[in-house]
């Protein structure tokens, strides 16, 4: 049976890097024995320009029905003044909300060819391959009350509330344990149980989930601040890190920068398994934005976008060998010295978006 992909290129460099993913998909269909069917929709500013919404109901329905959504990037100065409800980001937030994408996966991988270029010591990052699993739909970004109160004496009070229920911690830690089994078989859970009640519960529920069917996976607990320190000191001690929305936001950005440019970083967001098919809703996107400063110049690095499709192969389609093949092709292109501008050393010759895509296909 064929697999259904909804491509949402979006704005800025989004369509340019999506073009390279289309070539990769075509390659897997022609030479990799796969049958992906693709449909394409509008999201963000380009959708607003077309019909006044940041994503149409029709495209939302397609996203809900797709086996995976491949998302480029949205936004840009052109849409700075559009009404808040239809701003470009609203399209992405709507997708995350309606698809209930509660698990955000951010790998930090060090490509050998780029280990030398890092600002960190080579032995710290060479061979690095870790995965941060961030809870994406709960915690302090969403908890109520959330408000600014006027205290009337010239003082105001800003309130955000960290809330986690058992089921939210169970399902995110379940995802982390399952992913660990496909990798290094170790999960490190990070919270602040020393000062936060939600941290105490997080620790308890992760421990209980581990007991209920994941005891083959090694589990360790770490306070999130110590975890941040260890990520920079010796990141290779980790395999899968599972943490809440706020800590995960920060720790995944730190981990990402261990290995280099924004143009290299893929991500996946997963929902709960469907009751009937067992398949998870999923959206794959580069970590970076629409890079309006380089849009249209052919300078965009397509690797984050292509590697995001690689994550789709791995996590939505269980095509692990194909995902490995794609990752190897990226590593090979880098080994041969191909560099887009964002990952080039000063004075180094650079290639365009299309040339990098072609090189990866050739590999
Ligand atoms: P950005 O990630 O678009 O760009 C930051 C810097 O990194 C820029 O100098 C850009 O040229 C460079 N860069 C990013 N991706 C690159 C790539 N693939 N190859 C080479 N260089 C790359 O973040 P910025 O500038 O803060 O935001 C630009 C727009 O993107 C804004 O409208 C913002 O709201 C939106 N945005 C959208 C996101 C999404 O769609 N998920 C995420 C982050 C920002
Ligand atoms: Mg962030």
TrEMBL record:
Protein name: 3-isopropylmalate dehydrogenase
Residues that hold substrate according to the record: 96, 106, 134, 225
SUPFAM superfamilies from the UniProt entry: Isocitrate/Isopropylmalate dehydrogenase-like
Major subcellular location class: cytoplasm
GO biological process, one term: L-leucine biosynthetic process
Keyword NAD among record annotations: yes
CC cofactor: Mn(2+); Mg(2+)
Residues in Isopropylmalate dehydrogenase-like domain copies: 4-360
Gene: leuB_2
Organism from which the protein derives: Roseibium aggregatum
Cofactor remark from the record: Binds 1 Mg(2+) or Mn(2+) ion per subunit.
EC number: 1.1.1.85
GO MF assignments: 3-isopropylmalate dehydrogenase activity; magnesium ion binding; NAD binding
Catalytic activity: (2R,3S)-3-isopropylmalate + NAD(+) = 4-methyl-2-oxopentanoate + CO2 + NADH
């Amino acid at each position: 049976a064929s697999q259904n992909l909804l491509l949402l290129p979006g704005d800025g460099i989004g369509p340019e890097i999506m073009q390279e993913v289309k070539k990769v998909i075509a390659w897997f269909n022609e030479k990799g024995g796969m049958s992906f069917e693709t449909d394409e929709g509008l999201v963000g500013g380009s959708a607003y320009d077309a019909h006044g919404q940041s994503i149409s109901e029709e495209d939302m329905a397609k996203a809900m029905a797709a086996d995976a959504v491949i998302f480029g990037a949205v936004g840009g100065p052109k849409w700075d003044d559009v009404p808040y409800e239809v701003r470009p980001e609203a399209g992405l937030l709507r997708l995350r909300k309606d698809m209930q994408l509660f698990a955000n996966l951010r790998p930090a991988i060090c490509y050998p060819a780029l280990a030398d270029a890092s600002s960190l010591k080579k032995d710290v990052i060479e061979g690095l391959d870790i995965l941060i699993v961030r809870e994406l739909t709960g915690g302090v970004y969403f908890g109520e009350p959330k408000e600014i109160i006027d205290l009337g004496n010239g003082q105001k009070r800003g309130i955000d509330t960290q809330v986690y229920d058992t089921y939210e911690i169970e399902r995110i830690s379940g995802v982390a344990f399952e992913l660990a089994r496909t990798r290094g078989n170790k999960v490190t859970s990070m919270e602040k149980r020393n000062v936060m009640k939600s941290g105490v519960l997080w620790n308890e529920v992760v421990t209980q989930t581990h007991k209920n069917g994941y005891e083959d996976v090694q589990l360790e607990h770490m306070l999130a601040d110590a975890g941040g320190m260890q990520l920079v000191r010796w990141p290779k001690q980790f395999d899968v890190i599972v943490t809440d929305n706020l800590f995960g936001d920060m720790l995944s950005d730190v981990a990402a920068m261990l290995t280099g440019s924004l143009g290299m970083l893929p991500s996946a967001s997963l929902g709960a398994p469907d009751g009937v098919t067992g398949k998870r809703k999923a959206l794959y996107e580069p970590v970076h934005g629409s890079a309006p400063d380089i849009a249209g110049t052919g300078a965009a690095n397509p690797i984050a976008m292509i590697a995001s499709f690689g994550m789709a192969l791995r996590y939505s389609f269980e095509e692990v060998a194909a995902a490995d093949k794609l990752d190897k092709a990226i590593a090979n292109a880098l080994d041969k010295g191909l560099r887009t501008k964002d990952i080039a050393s000063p004075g180094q010759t650079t290639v365009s978006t299309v040339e990098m895509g072609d090189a990866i296909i050739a590999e």
